[in-house]
Amino acid sequence: DAKTTQPPSMDCAEGRAANLPCNHSTISGNEYVYWYRQIHSQGPQYIIHGLKNNETNEMASLIITEDRKSSTLILPHATLRDTAVYYCIVRATGNQFYFGTGTSLTVIP
Amino acid sequence: NAGVTQTPKFRVLKTGQSMTLLCAQDMNHEYMYWYRQDPGMGLRLIHYSVGEGTTAKGEVPDGYNVSRLKKQNFLLGLESAAPSQTSVYFCASSTGQRKNGGELFFGEGSRLTVL
Predict the structure, then answer these.
(1) Which residues on B lie below 8 Å from A34 (Cβ)?
(2) pLDDT in tens, B57-88
(3) Which of B57, B59, B61, B40 is nearest to B49 (CA)?
């Protein structure tokens, strides 16, 4: 099962784009990349997922490199409410989701 | 539509006591999962189920048992609680689909303290 590597923490100015990187160099061809976030001690919240192509929804954009070994989650206009821990996950072939330690994003006023 | 509901939300146990956490989902999802989260750490998969009557081990299954007798319910049991099992427990469910979503839906968590 592919593992992911994320920086432990990042800061972003309010109103600016937050770009959160993730490395998943051992990903297999049919494994999807998912992003979740966790605010305080609440249950994680789904953000977006993708396989090969870039994806966009109302919350964020997901950019996956052509070799699929890394991806970037983009929050286009970060707000204080986006302060959270962000998890990048490669969904295993057996439909397990293994979380790492994530990136703690702090949006600064 | 309640989504994923966990009970109880808080519990304090003494070492050696047993208890069961209940997870219920009303989305007709095939897959259900139990995770634990310790302070400052990410979620670790304890057990999961790919359908009614099935269970499988995750990353940290020791000390826990699970059952999925009904599709909508996934129970996590601690037969003899230990202080190391003090944690926040999250249940999640999923359709199991790949291309069209298949994302996890989480409950609000159950905070367990073992003294």
Answers:
(1) 103-104
(2) 999 999 999 999 999 999 999 999 999 999 99
(3) B57
